[in-house]
Design goal:
The structure is a homotrimer.
Chain A (H helix, E strand, L loop, with lengths): L4 H33 L5 H28 L23 H5 L5 H22 L6 H23 L4 H5 L7 H19 L20 H20 L8 H33 L4 H15 L8 H24 L8 H19 L5 H30 L5 H6 L1 H6 L15
Helix pairs in contact in A: 1-2, 1-4, 1-8, 2-4, 2-5, 4-5, 4-7, 5-7, 5-13, 7-12, 7-13, 8-9, 8-10, 9-10, 9-11, 10-11, 10-12, 11-12, 12-13
Chain lengths: 416, 416, 416
């Protein structure tokens, strides 16, 4: 006796909801990770940016994003520029009868939290010197226009989908897409004052709270089971839950591989294990497996994640050599490991081709990088994206928000 | 082929459990929010109060609360004063056969975490000057007597339910109920020393850690999907999961509306965006949608939440003018936005009437405010609710608990 | 109409996944709890150890742990030394047909997060003076060999299972097993310098951040619903969800009992309520109920948890008298309350016998204690487990990792 269509409908929808909630919590993970990795004087501002971008991304995805990504793409380049209106009578849809159905709102919720993730990637890279409102303007364009267009190419059923591009949960569509936007942003906004000296030295600017950064990483890891597991897009059959179980295991093991690879390598290279690098190793492992978490064996998942961690170790100093000042290491983690993960899919998935994967990576890369560059450039010319030197020195919390993240910090515990 | 009654029974019960766990985690959210918004010298005490009140509320809800709220209310004013005994043979109940059933314990668990939420609302308002045990005594009465009685009026099937009052997940029954109790408390206990000067000035007393407050807000937002989604009270049919999906989306968008409204308005009014106000804006948006998350369109949910955020901006200074010292802003968020949310239900729900909504808001308000006032007054006369001036100055952590939340704070990192 | 076998299969597997994710998040809870309870100079190191041990435990459980615990135990002492290979064609298994089935990977995932929990227990006890890599070597042996062998005795279907030993979710197999390993470790590594003076005094070394410790405790409580609830091992029938609902309620009430017992007792004994003791009371309540969360009435669950809390109050000073320096109190919480919880099962479960429970507690205790002692001793002789006196004084963060957890701590907020 199989699963009844109505039961499938419930389980498919509930999978979107519960996994979507886990992905929503990743916004908290990014906030804590970034709050831990910026300096004290910018902590409140990065918290504000994270809760604001999550809110704004959702609104923009409703206004234009969802339908631009999913409505009548039909193998093409983009959907339709219309606000989304959820069908509340989904019960009568054909999908419902054949057991593959789900509620319109559960699908929208799950897709919405993904665009918020993409936006979260950017805030860390350009932290500590970007102005609040220009940053949010970029987020609005990203969530409402840029992300949905490239998303339409694959998940919306556009030309990359027709080619057979394989990006299960978004190593490219979410993570490297966000990474390209961050890279364009950092090129427009420039490095923090004092980060690179005239003599070519790199000044370390250590984050204010490693336990907060660790908390953020654990929350992201926790949420990633929703990100990858929910991307099975269904729970209404034994085949779905079997795939979902494999995805959970591989997601976890890739993160573990990233952690262990970075630990061993930093111990060998630097003689000490670097915690913030290890945290980024976990995230790079997660990003790496995201393009294809359903096909690897466990040992392959560990290796894919481990190479992701290794990529972080290689690319973090490389970015510094290029004077690209990425405060939290989001470009190595999301862009570089995201590319790796996408290109690695054919290693374990016979249905994927390397050429098609490369086509997807390059085309989305070109679109997101240049699209973002134009938007960042326009915002900079119109409004200016960067705070003044004085504001940067004093800290964004005091200058932009007029408050302090830890007002009693350094004053003993008896102030007032 | 429909869902089998046993499958419905499983799904309905599991919805209570998994959503209840999300609501349980809101206790952690309140603890972090309040720990971030009080001053360093009172941080450990507020952590203790939060874990203690969650524990105590559960025990009291077992001893008297649940049955006072749900057993034989029959359109009346209250249920039966008896400890709750869970039926472990629920399998044979009539509910099970017709597909609407769930386990007794899953229902109890879900209702129990709601009373804990009500109690959590109060601790923040009266923080930094209330004594531990008198506070917990109030919580015991709240969870065991006050909350269940007004709860019986609507959710227990009492007179408000018969009138057609609509409060889906508790804008009034949970949030403004807790807010009224907090208001009564703050009137009895008075403002913190130095908060309001004789010349009419308001001294800002900024919270110790904005990242902790941000963490708490994100956890509350995360948990709210359980609060509102689980209040569908069933997952065993396509209609249930369709409603639940709409609820998830509207819950999220109302919070987003609260965030964005507060950001824009504080930017316009004060020239700067205030993070702690934004956090309260998110929460006010969530409280506002809680009375009716199942009927609005997305744009309506955003507006309902946005007005909730606006109410916070208006009522926070108003409370200060009245010298009502609400440390974390719980009265604006839970009481004021809770009233707004309840009165707004008829705007999107044709089955609700404004008069009935007003009747519910006023009657529950009168009962909770005066009931709480009497209990607070009695506790104050019998035991005294307020710490001494010296204890308040030195901080509750040192004086009531004999420890410090951050003992190495301000001493460099090499103490001991 | 009963649940279809395929629906059962989905629900059973999904229960493993979603509850497993909650247990995975307990790794974050342990990290925050321990980061809050160590001193500032060791905070980053304990964060690193926690993310590393979670990763490593998973890999070792794949390499040898799972099959040593579950493959062909057949009433004996241990399984088979082979890496685990997940059956991806579980759809055709006999289990699937009869409604008791689940996917191989979902089961593996759920069991894997349990071994990580066992490892997490140890890091707190030996914190602030253990070297990173020797610690991780112990974790590898624990997760790959020691834990699985004793696990095979009961959950793997070994000799204790045949005797009728009852340990539902691991008061003994997880918590006291980890506690015994921690005890052996602390005996080999010795107390922190200065903890016990020559005149017999105990120097308090208060933790750096009580809000972080509170956060960790709440996360553990939250995750414990997965730990105990998921240990029903099925969700595919009305009987399963009824049991699971009882488990959720009892888990919560035992924790509440632990909190309230510690509060009342520390108030009576010391005249003040000790927050860190209360946090451990919550955890001791949770550990106590874990051996049998499915059989007690609510009042029994509160009592079982309350006695667990009392045990913490008694054993914490006892350990100090024995100069066993357990930084976070993991031995009282996990070992002592774990023994209590296991022995208490026959009080509410007629199928359990006190003698069998004692046999399990003693045999697993002997195996884990002496097994761990040998491994700790070997690691110490080969590599040395303890940092130098200078490293301990300066802090592990600076000496082992070359960084600081809070680099701007004590410097005002304008450094750099």
């Amino acid at each position: 006796m199989p699963v009844s269509p109505e039961t499938s409908y419930i389980l498919n929808s509930f999978s979107f909801l519960i996994h979507g909630v886990l992905v929503m919590f990743m916004a908290c993970g990014f906030a804590m990770l970034e709050a831990g990795l910026v300096r004290t004087k910018n902590v409140a501002t990065i918290c504000l940016k994270n809760i604001a971008l999550y809110s704004l991304a959702g609104v923009m995805f409703w206004i234009s994003g969802y339908n631009l990504m999913y409505l009548n793409v039909d193998g093409g380049l983009l959907g339709t520029l219309l606000p989304w209106v959820g069908d509340t009578s989904a019960l009568q849809s054909a999908d419902y009868v054949d057991g593959g159905g789900y509620t319109a709102h559960s699908d929208w919720f799950f897709q919405m939290v993904f665009v918020a993730t993409t936006a979260s990637i950017i805030s860390g890279t350009v932290a500590e010197r970007i102005r609040l409102w220009p940053f949010l303007l970029f987020v609005a364009v990203l969530a409402g226009v840029l992300y949905p267009i490239q998303g339409a190419w694959h998940w919306g059923g556009g030309w990359l989908a027709e080619m057979g591009f394989a990006d299960f949960a978004g190593s490219t569509l979410v993570h490297s897409a966000g990474g390209w936007a961050a890279l364009a942003g950092v090129m427009i906004i420039g490095a923090r004052k004092g980060k690179y000296t005239k003599t070519g030295q790199v000044s370390p600017m250590p984050g204010s709270s490693l336990p907060l950064a660790t908390l953020g990483t654990f929350i992201l890891w926790f949420g990633w089971f929703g990100f990858n597991g929910g991307s099975q897009l269904a729970l209404g059959s034994a085949a779905d839950v079997t795939a979902m179980s494999i995805i959970y295991v591989n997601t976890n093991m890739a993160a573990a591989g990233g952690v262990l690879a970075v630990m061993v390598l930093t111990q060998i290279i630097y003689g000490k294990v670097d915690l913030s690098m290890v945290l980024n190793g976990a995230l790079a492992g997660l990003v790496s497996i995201t393009a294809g978490p359903d096909t690897p064996e466990i040992w392959q998942a560990i290796l894919i994640g481990g190479v992701g961690g290794m990529i972080v170790i290689i690319t973090v100093p490389l970015l510094d050599r290029l004077k690209l000042d990425d405060v939290v290491g989001a470009i190595p983690v999301h862009l570089c490991a995201g590319i790796w993960g996408t290109l690695a899919v054919p290693l374990t998935n016979a249905d994927a081709s390397f050429i098609t994967q490369l086509t997807g990576v390059v085309s989305i890369g070109l679109f997101m990088f240049f699209g973002s560059l134009i938007v960042w450039y326009g915002i900079d010319k119109l409004f200016g994206v960067r705070v003044s030197v004085e504001e940067e020195f004093e800290g964004l919390d005091k200058m932009e928000l007029g408050l302090e993240a830890y007002p009693e910090f350094g004053m003993g515990s008896h102030k007032i």
